[in-house]
Amino acid sequence: MILSKFVDELPIPPILKPRWKDQFYTYYEVNMTEFSQSLHSQLNNSTVWGYENGYPGPTIEVESGEKVFIKWINNLPDKHLFPIDYTVHGAHWDVPDVRTVVHVHGACVEWESDGYPEAWFTKGFKQVGPYFRKQIYRYDNCNHACTLWYHDHTIGITRLNIYAGLAGFYLIRENRERSLNLPSGKYEIPLMIQDKTFNEDGSLYYPKQPEKPIPELETSIIPEFIGDTILVNGKVWPYLEVEPRKYRFRLLNASNTRFYRIKLDSGQFMYQIATDGGLLEYPIGIREIMLAPAERADVIIDFTNLEGKNIIMTNDAPAPFPGGDKPDPLTVGQVMQFRVTLPLSSVDTSTIPAYMVPVPKIKEQSVTRIRYLTLNDTMDQYGREWMLLDNKPWDAPISENPKLGTTEIWYLINVTDDSHPIHLHLIDFQILDRRNFDVDKFNKEKVIEYTGPAMPPEPQERGWKDTVRANPKQVTRIIMEFGPFTGLYIWHCHILEHEDYEMMRPYIVIR
Ligand SMILES: [Cu+2]
């Protein structure tokens, strides 16, 4: 069944209202529930999970530096929407099927409120994971203005919980950004891009087995999930009516595995103004933008003088990336449509500024520690692909223990055939470079022999990042200062099927 494109309007998630707000702090409560929602007008309603009865969840908007407390409440049923593989770490028979914990992706936050995967909790906090510390999370929002997102992070079932709908936007605002006069208000729209597959009855489909099934297991984790349908803000191939003026879109790839290479079929430029961690030094005009799972990019699209035009946002990234099939241009090669049909309601006085904010380069001379970390590919006892970080599974002793306030360079040495979006919690980093190397020689002798020059990050990546594409057969170098908190955090691949199956490691910031 192929659903018609551009028949449903793009939904825009509501802004969450706090339960309490005064000059000292803000308090929210967010309920997780199961409900049915229309994801396309030709489909029966789908049963989904969401925050505050919405998929995506409501957008949380805070000021930089605002003290925010959030009570995340699990009100989900006892039965999971999708089949669980009980062989996966942390998801064995000894724990309840339905567990949740919320991570604000990109947040500068104390570790007890970061949503550690083993800090999960069930309905009414009846059962909690070994690292559960508190019911009410505290966010200091020590980030500059940026597009963050909150999503589930439960050990062993993150892929299923996010696929069920547990994701939403978390925006940090700041006067420094307001003074730039970017398109705002109804001209600033978040776009959460995901892929899914539906059953005939409208329910969401998630495979029980990989393409080559594992006969010993009733349910097995799959190496990647590639959906045949694209959704934006929880709607299949939506359209958005726009005025002939500038808009700011906050693009987020919230897919399990799929990468997107976004273009406009009008061939026009998009002006990227921000990366994962906030504003760039100056806007860059680009015709295409790559987004791996969890990456964000804020872009300004100018519809001025395009009255009456329909513009399609397209995607031509192979899936899996980069070695997989090119997307079918009639289905997953399309994302959404803009219709320039609304009258201009007032003169567009917003601007694309020539300069935005300083993004000072972290100095390599300040580095006190270099870590060489492989991304590797092995096989488990069932013959399944097993992706690891530094050749270690999740529960091996902690080996990355940066000191508070120090700067490190991490060499991400990818010997696999996939591009892995590597995400570090707590901090933003900068990408130094990527460089091809001799994988066979590295596997045999454990020495890095470069086979090409160091390539600087793409212009679209020259800002603060929390997720980086580590490409196959390349060394990707990132640099970061660890702080302002100490404690237990994690780093992992953001392909959800990888992170659930061991491509995730704890790290600790020590004093
Ligand atoms: Cu991966």
TrEMBL record:
It holds the Pfam family Cu-oxidase_2. It comes from the Bacteria. One of its GO terms (molecular function) is oxidoreductase activity. SUPFAM superfamilies: Cupredoxins (SSF49503). CDD domains: CuRO_1_BOD_CotA_like, CuRO_2_CotA_like, CuRO_3_CotA_like. Residues 44-80, 99-175, 206-313, 382-509 form the Plastocyanin-like domain. The keyword Amino-acid biosynthesis does not apply. Keywords: Capsid protein, Virion. The keyword Magnesium does not apply. Belongs to the multicopper oxidase family. This is Spore coat protein A.
